[in-house]
């Protein structure tokens, strides 16, 4: 199947007083039509910056230093001029934001905000309103009330669903969802994810989830990509990564999920504090916090290794051949 | 219901202010009532007649108990009688005020609008400029302009534009050759005369708006919905509309509050330019200790401001959907 | 001290501001020591042009203008500082009380605050000045603060209301610490950066009101003040309309402008010094 999105070697820098910080380093990935990918990492891992990079709209003072972003049309989106970029947004790629509660203009009714989108992309206002209504209906919203409401008149979960509806308004090929459920309570989280899964199947669109909580998205994504300190350190089918994580960091992420049943004592955090991008070792970025570090880890950057379960990982431990490696991960699991 | 309450509160506030001025003037040592009464007696006017005259001018019968004086005075005020001027004998205070008020209202309103407009523009500019020194220059100009007292600006402008270069007249609201009314020459003459006062209001007023607008714009620019609007591919005009409406809105509450400061400033500005508005009236009354005029000016300007605030609050609920009822 | 210097040199405008402020403060402190004798009246030297003997020339009575500016600074700064302190005390106490002592106190105090905020403060100041009469500078400072505490009280109140809901206050409450302890140890320190910054603005407000009263000639007692100079220059002396006397008119104007500019340019430095969060962000 063709790639809806093809990102190659994307790097994003932030100049600071002490020097340039590379928030995203050589990130490459592809998403196929109808596929759903999750980018996982803790705060500061660069996962949200990647999302803004896709829009070629990195917040100030950051800038994209290298790489390419190609959608279906095949041209490098990073080279497209402002007006074309504006038209491209929302019609081909849209986004549901981290704090979607605040992404609606507080002074305008929802239908006005739908109209604004229609006007910007030269759609028929009446038709687009009907489209919005049917989307809101799919999301179990009281359509008439929502269309005539001001944002503050809606609850957090409702606003989130409105944002998702707006993101689907122009039938984009791909929707980026930046922590779409973090601000919601557990029940709304579940229903929002269920809705997203349904829509994805019905409309056959591609989704890109960005989250710090790997467990939340495990039900809705096909594959995951784990980021640490601006770099991808492991990626593969979600089942494989969840059941047998290879990189010690991924292992830590999964271990830190509290179980739904059982004792919370069994969960473990990752030792050490969050990464400081300007103080990275020459070798593996996770070196200082890794439980299984070796001497060469601080000096030699770990190479990419593709394992036989379709998982790729950047870790010196994964250098061994497939069978041997699996034993190691089994061992890790015994220690939990 | 809420608005009926608000209106009642406004009327009560005016009443409290009026009562305060009454007791302030009456209870001070050397009360003007006693002073005037004694003066009249000393001039050889019989006590009865003297008392009557004090009553006409100050709305108070001197030898009555204080509380009765107050009730009596209040009754007169409610009927629109604020006594007579001591200096301009026989002229009712209310007429002096109604002659003066329109001049002030027009100049203050125009000054406020222009300074608001300039301030908003500069504030947005300062929020948008990339170079830090430009934006900090705008901020500093804004805060310095705001901190310089109106009378200093007024005197400086008067000296430069009317004493040194004779571009603008130094006093009055229109020239003696024109006939007040709705006619071209009068309006032109009025505009000519009010240029310097309005300029002073603008120079001393725009700074505060610049600073407020900058702060407001900067905070709206950080809002998530601005980023969202951009990524939705909305047109630049629409996005600027989102930015503008959201950042100007908080300034509206300040707009009416600043009326108080501007009316206060009119004492200095109109005093300096001998512009026949309410500020000038108050300044003159204070210098000549014309108590009835002083009280009248004070009560009426306060009432004007209180009701302007009421209207502004009402308009604000129409502008901001987040505020209900 | 090192910190002060570090904060100041971050922006050139701050250095300029501090320089002006220091100049006037020195003038105010030492002015009366240098010019302890009475002002010289010299009828033969009316409206003299600036010279070495009279740096800024002389006025309509042949008195040295520079000397008057220096003498005036003592009065201007002393009253302004005093008034600003009164304003801070009044505004902070009323704001704290309204925000912390419950709904009834809050409602009453905020009514009063609103009243003071709507009344045009200059007009109120003038009426109070005329009716109460002012016998000395302390009374003048009190009057000035009486008409200018409203904005501060309101801001402090809303800050207290928001701090009350913050987690660090909740924690203290959970620990069983007393109301006063929380007010003094948790809430007040968080307000101080704002209070210090507002103090600077209160000084400019007080200078405005004070010099304005002298300018209008409402203050009954004699004092050396730039407002008095401006009053004479624009009024009785007729200096306004003769170009000869430019210095006599321009000197007090310049003095006020420079002083206010100095204070205003220092405000953001004070803000940064008082608020550790701002400092660390650089």
UniProtKB/TrEMBL annotation, chain A:
SMART domains: AAA. Signal peptide: none annotated. Residues 5-254 form the ABC transporter domain. GO terms for biological process: peptide transport. Keywords: ATP-binding, Nucleotide-binding, Transport. PROSITE patterns: ABC_TRANSPORTER_1, ABC_TRANSPORTER_2. This is Peptide ABC transporter ATP-binding protein. The lineage of its organism: Bacteria, Bacillati, Bacillota, Bacilli, Bacillales.
Automatic annotation (TrEMBL), chain B:
It is a multi-pass membrane protein. GO terms for cellular component: plasma membrane. PROSITE patterns: ABC_TM1. Residues 101-312 form the ABC transmembrane type-1 domain. Keywords: Cell membrane, Membrane, Transmembrane, Transmembrane helix, Transport. Pfam families: BPD_transp_1, BPD_transp_1_N. The keyword Transmembrane helix applies. Its main location: membrane. The chain crosses the membrane at residues 7-28, 103-129, 150-170, 190-211, 248-273, 293-312. The keyword Cell membrane applies. CDD domains: TM_PBP2 (cd06261). It is found in: Cell membrane. GO terms for biological process: transmembrane transport. Belongs to the binding-protein-dependent transport system permease family. This is ABC transporter permease. It comes from Pullulanibacillus pueri.
From TrEMBL, chain C:
It holds the Pfam family OppC_N. It is a multi-pass membrane protein. One of its GO terms (molecular function) is dipeptide transmembrane transporter activity. The chain crosses the membrane at residues 12-35, 76-100, 199-221, 246-270. PANTHER family: D,D-DIPEPTIDE TRANSPORT SYSTEM PERMEASE PROTEIN DDPC-RELATED (PTHR43386:SF1), OLIGOPEPTIDE TRANSPORT SYSTEM PERMEASE PROTEIN APPC (PTHR43386). It comes from the Bacteria. The keyword Transmembrane applies. Belongs to the binding-protein-dependent transport system permease family. This is Peptide ABC transporter permease. It is found in: Cell membrane. GO terms for cellular component: plasma membrane. Residues 73-265 form the ABC transmembrane type-1 domain. Keywords: Cell membrane, Membrane, Transmembrane, Transmembrane helix, Transport. InterPro entries: BP-dependent_transpt_permease, MetI-like, MetI-like_sf, OppC_N. The keyword Iron-sulfur does not apply. Its main location: membrane. Coiled coil: none annotated.
């Amino acid at each position: 199947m063709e790639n809806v999105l093809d990102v190659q070697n994307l790097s994003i820098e932030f100049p600071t007083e002490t020097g340039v910080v590379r928030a995203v380093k050589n990130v490459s990935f592809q998403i196929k039509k109808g596929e759903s990918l999750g980018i996982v990492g803790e705060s500061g891992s660069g996962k949200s910056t990647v999302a803004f990079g896709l829009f070629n709209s990195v917040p100030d003072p950051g800038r994209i230093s290298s790489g390419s972003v190609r959608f279906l049309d095949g041209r490098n989106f990073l080279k497209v001029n402002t007006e074309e970029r504006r038209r491209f947004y929302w019609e081909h790629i849209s986004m549901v934001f981290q704090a979607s509660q605040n992404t609606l203009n507080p002074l305008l009714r929802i239908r006005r905000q739908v109209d604004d989108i229609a006007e910007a992309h030269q759609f028929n206002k009446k038709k687009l309103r009907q489209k919005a209504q049917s989307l809101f209906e799919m999301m179990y919203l009281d359509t008439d009330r929502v269309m005539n409401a001001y944002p503050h008149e809606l609850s957090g979960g409702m606003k989130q669903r409105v944002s998702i509806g707006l993101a689907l308004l122009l039938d984009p090929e791909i929707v980026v969802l930046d922590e779409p459920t973090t601000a919601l309570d557990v029940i709304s989280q579940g229903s929002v994810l269920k809705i997203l899964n349904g829509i994805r199947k019905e409309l056959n669109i591609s989704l890109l989830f960005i989250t710090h909580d790997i467990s939340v998205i495990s039900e809705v994504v096909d594959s995951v990509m784990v980021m640490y300190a601006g770099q991808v350190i492991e990626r593969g089918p979600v089942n494989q990564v969840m059941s047998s994580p290879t990189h010690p960091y991924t292992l830590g992420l999964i271990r830190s999920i509290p179980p739904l049943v059982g004792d919370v004592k069994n969960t473990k955090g990752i030792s050490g504090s969050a990464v400081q991008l300007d103080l990275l070792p020459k070798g593996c970025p996770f070196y200082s916090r890794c439980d299984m570090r070796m001497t060469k880890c601080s000096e030699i950057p770990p190479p990419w290794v593709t394992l036989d379960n379709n998982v790729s990982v950047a870790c010196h431990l994964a250098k061994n051949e497939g069978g041997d490696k699996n034993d190691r991960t089994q061992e890790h699991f015994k220690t939990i | 219901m809420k608005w009926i309450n608000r209106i009642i509160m406004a009327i009560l506030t005016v009443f409290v202010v009026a009562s305060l001025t009454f007791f302030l003037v009456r209870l001070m040592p050397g009360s003007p009532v006693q002073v005037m009464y004694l003066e009249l007696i000393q001039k050889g006017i019989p006590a009865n007649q003297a008392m009557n005259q004090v009553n006409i001018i100050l709305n108070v019968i001197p030898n009555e108990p204080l509380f009765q004086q107050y009730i009596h005075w209040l009754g007169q005020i409610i009927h629109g009688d604020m006594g007579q001027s001591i200096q301009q004998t026989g002229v009712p205070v209310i007429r002096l005020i109604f002659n003066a008020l329109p001049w002030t209202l027009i100049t203050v309103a125009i000054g406020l609008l222009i300074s608001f407009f300039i301030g908003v523009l500069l504030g947005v500019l300062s929020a948008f400029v990339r170079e830090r020194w430009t934006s900090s220059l705008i901020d500093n100009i804004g805060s310095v302009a705001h901190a310089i007292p109106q009378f200093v600006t007024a005197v400086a402008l008067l000296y430069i534009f009317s004493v040194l270069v004779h571009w603008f007249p130094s006093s009055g609201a229109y020239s003696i050759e024109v006939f007040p009314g709705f006619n071209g020459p009068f309006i032109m003459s009025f505009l000519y005369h009010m240029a310097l006062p309005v300029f002073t209001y603008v120079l001393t007023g725009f700074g505060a708006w610049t600073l407020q607008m900058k702060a407001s714009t900067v905070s709206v620019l950080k809002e998530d919905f601005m980023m969202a609007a951009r990524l939705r591919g909305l047109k630049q005009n629409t996005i600027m509309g989102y930015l503008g409406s959201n950042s100007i809105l908080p300034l509206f509450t300040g707009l009416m509050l600043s009326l108080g400061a501007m009316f206060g400033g009119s004492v200095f500005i109109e005093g300096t330019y001998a512009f026949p508005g309410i500020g000038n009236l108050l300044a003159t009354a204070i210098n000549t200790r014309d108590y009835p005029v002083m009280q009248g000016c004070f009560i009426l300007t306060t009432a004007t401001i209180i009701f302007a605030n009421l209207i502004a609050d009402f308009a604000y609920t129409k502008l901001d959907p987040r505020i209900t009822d | 001290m090192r910190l002060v210097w570090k904060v100041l040199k971050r922006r050139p405008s701050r250095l300029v501001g501090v320089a002006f402020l220091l100049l006037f403060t020195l003038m105010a402190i030492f002015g009366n020591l240098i010019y302890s004798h009475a002002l010289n009246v010299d009828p033969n030297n009316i409206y003299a042009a600036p010279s070495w003997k009279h740096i800024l020339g002389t006025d309509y009575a042949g008195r040295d203008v520079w000397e008057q500016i220096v003498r005036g600074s003592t009065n201007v700064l002393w009253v302004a500082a005093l008034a600003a302190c009164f304003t801070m005390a009044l505004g902070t106490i009323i704001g704290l009380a309204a925000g912390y002592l419950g709904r009834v106190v809050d409602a009453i105090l905020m009514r009063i605050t609103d009243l003071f905020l709507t009344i045009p403060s200059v007009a109120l100041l003038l009426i109070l000045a005329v009716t109460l009469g002012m016998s000395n500078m302390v009374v003048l400072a009190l009057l000035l603060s009486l008409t200018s505490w409203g904005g501060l009280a309101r801001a402090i109140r809303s800050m207290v209301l928001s701090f009350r809901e913050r987690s660090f206050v909740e924690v203290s409450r959970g620990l069983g610490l007393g109301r006063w302890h929380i007010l003094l140890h948790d809430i007040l320190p968080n307000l101080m950066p704002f209070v210090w910054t507002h103090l600077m603005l209160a000084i400019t407000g007080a200078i405005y009101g004070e010099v304005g009263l002298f300018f209008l000639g409402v203050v009954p007692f004699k004092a050396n003040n730039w407002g008095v100079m401006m009053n004479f220059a624009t009024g009785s002396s007729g200096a306004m309309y003769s170009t000869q006397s430019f210095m006599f008119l321009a000197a007090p104007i310049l003095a006020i402008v420079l002083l206010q500019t100095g204070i205003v340019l220092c405000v953001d430095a004070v803000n940064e010094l008082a608020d550790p969060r701002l400092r660390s962000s650089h």
